[in-house]
Every structure is written in C-alpha cells, then in structure tokens.
Amino acid sequence: PIDRRLAREEVERLLTAARGSANPQLKHIVTLMVLTGARQRELLEARWDQFDLDAGIWRVPDHRGQPARVIKLHP
Fold first, then answer.
1. DSSP 22
2. C-alpha–C-alpha distance, residues 63 and 74, integer Å
3. Which residues lie across from 54 on neighbouring strands?
4. Dihedral angle computed from the Cα positions of residues 49, 53, 54 and 59, in that order, rounded to the nearest 10 degrees
5. Does the pTM of the predicted model rise above 0.90?
C-alpha cells in the first residue's frame, strides 16, 4: 500500500466538502481521521473501551492477530 499524506490544500478541500455534506456526522468523521490518522473502518468500529482518555491514547485492535495499534490523542 502507498502511504501518502495529504497536502494542506487537500485537507482543507476535504474538510470543506465534509462540512457541506448532507450527512451531519461526516464532518466529525473526516476531522477525526485527519487528526488521528485513523482509517475509516477503525473509526466506525471504535468502542469506548479502546480509549484511555487519561493517558490520551486509543488502542485500535488488529483483526489479523497483530498487536493493537496505538494512536495518541491530543487534548
């Protein structure tokens, strides 16, 4: 798989499009994906027990038997 980060202009266009969507949740989903680097499936399948808000981390389980991926959360 290709790992390419979006350019600032691309992120701005993506967020603008998400804010204009008929889906009221899309702007929140896209914002979280941009801020955390989470994948769509990870975000949509997230459960509260995966989050440690005191430590500021989200442990994303790997469904292939690998260790959980840790995403640092910003205050």
1. S
2. 25
3. none
4. 60
5. no
For the chain, give the mean pLDDT. Answer: 90
Query: Who contacts 19 (Cβ-Cβ below 8 Å, separation ≥6)?
Result: 27
**What's the half-sphere exposure (Cβ side, CA atoms, 13 Å) at 73?**
13
DSSP H helices in the chain: 8-19, 26-36, 40-44
Q: Give the sign of the dihedral formed by CA 52, CA 29, CA 68, CA 65.
A: positive
What is the C-alpha to C-alpha distance for residues 54 and 23, in angstroms, rounded to an integer? 31
* Helices 26-36/8-19 angle, 10° precision: 160
Tokens of 35: 């801020």
- CB 69, CB 60: distance < 8 Å: yes
